[in-house]
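Escalated from tier 1: magnesium ion holo job.
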Amino acid sequence: MLTMKQLSKVYQTHMIETHALRGIDMQVREGEFVAVTGPSGSGKTTFLNIAGLLEEFTGGEYHLDGVDVRGLDDNQRSRLRNEKLGFIFQGFNLIPDLNLFDNVDVPLRYRGMSAGERDQRIKEALERVGLASRLKHLPSQLSGGQQQRVAIARALAGSPRILFADEPTGNLDSLMAREVMNMLEDINSRGTTIVMVTHDPELARRVHRNIHIMDGQASDFAKAPRKAPREESTLSAVG
Ligand code: ADP
Ligand code: MG
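Tier 2 regenerated the structure:
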């Protein structure tokens, strides 16, 4: 689904070069739920933005769902992003003066769907996150947890193949964080691949695999999905 080889990113600002990513090798398979962890400033957001085609990279290779990203122009990247990817950010990124319905509509408007299809997708998505009764509310009239659920609905309405989440629970208390995580697990169990940056060890433990980024380099903590911990411990006892 997602393959990176020796991917690098250098930021040039004034006279300073920042090597944010220094040769990332990684692979995310279809249907996986992966957590990306690591200290602040290690390159997690840079990695996620490049993976989500929000930012360009400097060197290396990146294939997304069979497409060589390097060869795409801006229009092709936007199209691929809009049709196949969904995003959830720490700060929700909702538009304050649009109601919930219109917020979820924003990415759909770029897809050339009929008004009827958009209407149906928006209502279904808001229903799935338990906010169908608040279509006309503004983001400021909701709690943080509810606002993040709107952002999840906005991502889901486009039926993404991959969902990218950057610290999606970073601004939430632990109860709301758990609720958002339950929702992400449900989305993943229905087939959407999820790549989530998180600081929260409790959340990181709940996913299939952790990728740790340190100084712009990645290491894989568990190659095999962690669904069968008993089997894993038997294997390590034998080998
Ligand atoms: P994390 O999300 O793990 O905290 P980031 O990916 O945001 O880390 O940042 C990695 C490094 O790249 C940091 O040293 C940061 O200062 C630098 N960086 C990130 N974005 C930019 C930018 N737009 N311009 C210059 N440097 C940047
Ligand atoms: Mg970050």
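Residues 44-45 surround magnesium ion (ligand 2) (CB under 6 Å).
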